[in-house]
Amino acid sequence: GAVVSQHPSRVICKSGTSVKIECRSLDFQATTMFWYRQFPKQSLMLMATSNEGSKATYEQGVEKDKFLINHASLTLSTLTVTSAHPEDSSFYICSASHRATLGGYTFGSGTRLTVV
Amino acid sequence: QKEVEQNSGPLSVPEGAIASLNCTYSDRVSQSFFWYRQYSGKSPELIMSIYSNGDKEDGRFTAQLNKASQYVSLLIRDSQPSDSATYLCAVTGMNRDDKIIFGKGTRLHILP
To answer: Which segments of B47-86 does DSSP mark as H helices, in order?
Structure first.
């Protein structure tokens, strides 16, 4: 079935540095990738929608200059958290749409970001 | 603002009993409805999807949809301790690339 590979699974970084998270669609082309953030005991919050070859669409309240999204190819989307702060510590998950997947959406395994 | 509402729980159900999870949504034009299971620290896993009114059964799971009432539910029969997780209700539109709107999830605890 459709698989989305997300890396790294866990990262610890110092405050003020940047972190890049990658999501790759394996064996299918992901024209659209969704990026979510989830704080402890909270639901998934959609941050942005990225489409291959175009600018990402950010949800209200999400800083596009802080959370840089690149979807340069049909199999790779990246999220870069720039100048990270402790409040950016969260669980980041990507999801791609794919016709063959029941329900049409496949999630990556998530990235646990801790900013110290 | 499109919303998906769920009771946060926790919902405690004895092992072997039926667990009933409920969800309401605000956008009448929603077309696709999903239930995801999420274990702590893991990403969501799709367990059921439903697109038309009525019931849909898959093993121990039954999804129920009532578009007139804007209500979708998930029944888990013969509940097992491994069913203990957070269950997320999700709703989306007609198009493949429509974004999914998630509820906040219901924590389910199966009592051994």
So the answer is: none
Smallest Cβ distance to A49: which of B45, B99, B101?
Answer: B99
Which of B33, B99, B106 has the most A C-beta neighbours within 10 Å, making it the best mutation to test the interface with A?
A: B99
The first and second tokens of residue A72, run together, are 């340069």
Angle at the Cα of A89 from the Cα atoms of B98 and A9, rounded to 5 degrees: 70
According to the model, what pLDDT value does residue B33 have? 93
Q: Which residues of B touch A (CB under 8 A)?
A: 32, 34, 41-46, 49, 88, 96-97, 99-105
CA distance A65 to A46: 16
Q: Length of chain A, please?
A: 116
Q: In this complex, do B49 and A34 lie within 8 Å of one another by their Cβ atoms?
A: no
From the number of C-beta atoms within 10 Å of its C-beta (0-12, 13-18, 19+), residue B69 rates as exposed
Q: For residue A7, what are the contacts with CB-CB under 8 A and spacing of at least 6?
A: A21, A22, A111
Whole-angstrom distance, CA of residue B16 vs CA of residue B66: 26
For A50, other C-beta atoms within 10 Å of its C-beta total 27
d(CA B16, CA B51): 28
The tens digit of pLDDT for each residue in A46-64 reads 999 988 878 899 999 999 9
Q: Which of A111-115, B44-48, B58-62, B76-80 has the lowest mean pLDDT?
A: B44-48
